[in-house]
Amino acid sequence: MSENGVSSRAKVLTIDTMNPTVKKVEYAVRGPIVQRALELERELSQGMKKPFVEVIKANIGDAHAMGQQPITFFRQVLALCSYPELLNDTTFPEDAKSRARRILQSCGGYSMGSYSASQGIESVRQDVARYIERRDDGVPCDPDDIYLTTGASDGIVTVLKLLVCGEGAARTGVMISIPQYPLYSAALAELSAVQINYYLNEETCWSMDISELQRALDEARRHCNPRALCIINPGNPTGQVQSRQCIEDVIRFAAKERLFLMADEVYQDNVYADSCKFHSFKKVLFDMGPEYSNTVELVSFHSTSKCYMGECGFRGGYMEIINMDDEVKAQLTKLVSVRLCPPVPGQALMDLVVNPPQTGEPSYDKFIKERTATLSALAEKATLTEQVLNTVQGISCNPVQGAMYSFPRITIPEKAIKEATDNGQQPDMFYCMKLLEETGICLVPGSGFGQKDGTYHFRMTILPPKDKLTILLNKVKEFHQKFTQQYS
Amino acid sequence: MSENGVSSRAKVLTIDTMNPTVKKVEYAVRGPIVQRALELERELSQGMKKPFVEVIKANIGDAHAMGQQPITFFRQVLALCSYPELLNDTTFPEDAKSRARRILQSCGGYSMGSYSASQGIESVRQDVARYIERRDDGVPCDPDDIYLTTGASDGIVTVLKLLVCGEGAARTGVMISIPQYPLYSAALAELSAVQINYYLNEETCWSMDISELQRALDEARRHCNPRALCIINPGNPTGQVQSRQCIEDVIRFAAKERLFLMADEVYQDNVYADSCKFHSFKKVLFDMGPEYSNTVELVSFHSTSKCYMGECGFRGGYMEIINMDDEVKAQLTKLVSVRLCPPVPGQALMDLVVNPPQTGEPSYDKFIKERTATLSALAEKATLTEQVLNTVQGISCNPVQGAMYSFPRITIPEKAIKEATDNGQQPDMFYCMKLLEETGICLVPGSGFGQKDGTYHFRMTILPPKDKLTILLNKVKEFHQKFTQQYS
User: Fold this and answer.
1) Which chain A residue has the Cα nearest residue B81?
2) Measured between beta carbons, which residues in chain A are less than 8 angstroms from residue B109?
3) Contacts of A297 in chain B (CB under 8 A)
4) Given this model, what pLDDT does residue A34 score?
5) CA triplet B463, B466, B472: central angle to 5 degrees?
6) Each residue of B83-97: b (16+ CB within 10 Å) or e?
7) Residue A204 DSSP SS3
8) How many other β-carbons are positioned within 10 Å of the β-carbon of residue A72?
9) pLDDT of residue A153
10) Using the beta-carbon criterion (under 8 Å), do B115 and A313 form an inter-chain contact?
């Protein structure tokens, strides 16, 4: 049988012969700790005894999974678009029907089952442009500069793809904050670009300091070609909201140092601290006058997954490109055409986010009530999280000014650090794994996002319902005290 | 103002400083001819006079845009999943409701707005596995080998990404058919992999000949490391359906030559010719016994976009991986996790495709009626297309055995070839552009898919409704005669 050696032949594709850049990719938000959480859930459902009755996943910004309710109006319109027969149903409000009709009229054959233009449905891009103009107090926005995307991740990877070139010391470097959202490091690893870390300042509520940007850039220039600067505002995983002044300084820095700016602004509605306000990079750029607004290249990303809607599963998003070279833009349009189009239901949802019910429309009151309820609950949970965590000796938590996460610093006893290191594990991974096994709480270790050497953190979403969040926080508190005692 | 040179500074990102691999990407299906078609549509809507009253887009397999109706049951379930309030609506059939409940129960928080597992919703993967087992007469399928995708394109690019490595003569080469679907060439260009062309035999109805595979492979081995072989069956753009024997030969070839097989089987329900039947690569592989079924690495791709459903806009799909090395599989799982998950509405739709109404269920009769109507109409149009085109002197068209396209060969007079070449245009691009300007019909030139030197073709979908297709075919006929006359 194995005369020709077929049955015993080795695999074509093995870990040693596969794409080495893929192997370098890491994505902590869905890493080993989440694998283990899923296993524990399965074991629980099989009746295995655990020291807890359920796994609470505070590892990912997945609002609906944590019980947040969708906006009724959005889902009504999506149902109408999915099954247009419902347009004859008198129980649906008229404004939902008129939105659905408008979306369907922009779809080939009046169906969400048709491909859209690769850049996205034109009428949706128009609505996005008008939304941005309202948000930015009238700064003009051209629908032709809007690209709809499959979630923000898709847009970010696409833009990075355009930027990467060169070899050796000429290789493109991209500046990202540390801590960062690991999509960035994963995409840069896959593209073999150089990751340039700039550290946020934990002592001043994760502020972004120009001197640190300069340090990181100057060092990087010795071994690569830094070309882009990524900012996440409001911050993920760190929850800070940047001041207007800081944004202006960053833009001035980018202009001086000739950096392409990428502003991840998916949490633009998630601002809780009274002292903070969301300022879009575009608005600040245009306020700085033509010297900047005509030259600085900027892409801003938004998504249907966060804010008050939390519609992650639909994979909707957009990016706005500003001051992009025309030839590059043509290349971008060509590149996105290969994947045909972003999912149309996600495009429809993006449309509703940027064009929600207006005063006087039948769905307006309900929409405002639902949106306010979600955002107020998040604000309350942001405060609760910070307060409870700061009562624990050995945990210190900056205010959660915005976004959906706290990223507290934890003190890990030397003995625990040693045990972890002996096991080849990051100390905060060791901590989070123990927490999971003992309490069922799933958090992500700070090492998955990056942190200053010798410091340890975890990222925790503030999304669980208040009663569950309270239990969770108290369990973390108890666990931390026990853990500290055990290893002291 | 320009003291510091800011206002006059050059762009960071220009055509000369962007990623060179992106520049190499080409995607004819949405290339310049489609751009022009969109312009013409805009001009018509602005009241400009043209020699036609509408643009007919036969360039892309976009069924709903061409008037094909969605399957009622699918859309009912999607509406129920989007807006679960409708579960109380008595006008929806019970089987639609029970499907919707099952899908929602698999979604976090009972909402399609939650992220799913990155590999896809578990219950959907179970349904896919059962579908494959039914399709392949009981060959077992493990849901753990199923990955849901954002359309088939996403899956294909992901698998290619795993395969590509090496530099220079060790660079990964991937064999693709010529003519090909240009997603393959685009993805290979972007990944800097080596494209290895094997030619389908137009004289024998676009058959795939092992001797040609061998020739292509032997030549390629001199300058790269061929590792994978891609097959599209039923064929795009060529419409052929492979015989069981041919598939067996291809598998034997892959085993002998140590090639990783990628079978693009998105048209598996689109078989029209009485003499033809769809055979999955997996089924044939398992029929060949353990010598092959335990060793040959195969990935098969499917999608919600084609067949009788034509739901392109939802970007749903799956891939089944067979005999993949466990460590590589773990890398694949990690890689897909970076993009979080495929769109959940597309996953739900994929679930319905693999688990449609069953005998005895209230929606069964209607479902069968709708599916049969669409597939019969396509079969009729496949024949019509071949017949009419073959009445034209200078056009010769193979039978459209399956898929959704005809790819007829056209004779272009020397004078036209010269005029095109003088303009720096491919002769068939020149032909198709003229056709578009004179008739409003949008086709894709054969050069966008690849063809033997000195031959010319176009790809035309068979999707327009029969009456429109008849008009279209007659206009093509008229145009070809006029064009031939003009340039003779």
Assistant:
1) A79
2) 64-68
3) 11-13
4) 87
5) 75
6) bbebeeeeebbebbb
7) helix
8) 17
9) 93
10) yes
Q: Which residues pair with B320 in a beta bridge?
A: B146, B300
Q: Which residue of B has its CA nearest to A87?
A: B79
Going by C-alpha positions, the residue among A80, A75, A77, A154 that lies closest to residue A118 is A154
Q: What is the ipTM of this complex?
A: 0.93
CB-CB neighbors (< 8 A) of B17 in chain A: 165, 227
Contact B82 A86 (CB under 8 A): no
The letter for the amino acid at B348 is A
Cβ–Cβ of B291/A1 closer than 8 Å? yes
Question: Are B301 and B430 a contacting pair, CB within 8 Å?
Answer: no
Among B162, B310, B339, whose Cβ lies nearest the Cβ of A22? B162
List b or e across B127-147, with b for residues whose CB sees 16 or more CB atoms inside 10 angstroms. bbbebbeebbeebebebebbb
pLDDT band at A2; cut points 50, 70, 90? very low
Contact (CB, 8 A) for A472 and A441: yes
CATH of the domain spanning A115-354: 3.40.640.10
- Report the chain A residue with the minimal C-alpha distance to residue B114: A313
pLDDT at B8: 55
pLDDT at A8: 55
What band does B385 get if pLDDT is binned at 50, 70 and 90? Answer: very high
Homologous superfamily assigned to B20-67+368-486: Aspartate Aminotransferase, domain 1 (3.90.1150.10)
In this complex, which of B109, B309, B324 lies closest to A65 when CB atoms are compared?
A: B109
Does pLDDT of B3 surpass 90? no
| Residue where the block lists tokens 């007919």 | B56
A377 exposure class (CB count in 10 Å sphere: 0-12, 13-18, 19+): middle
Q: Looking at residue A180, what is its pLDDT?
A: 94
pLDDT at B331 over 80: yes
Domain extent listing, chain A:
20-67+368-486, 115-354
Q: Calculate mean pLDDT across residues A459-473.
A: 95
Q: A108: which chain B residues are within 8 Å (Cβ-Cβ)?
A: 62, 64-66
pLDDT at A25: 85
Residue B31 clears pLDDT 80, i.e. is over it: no
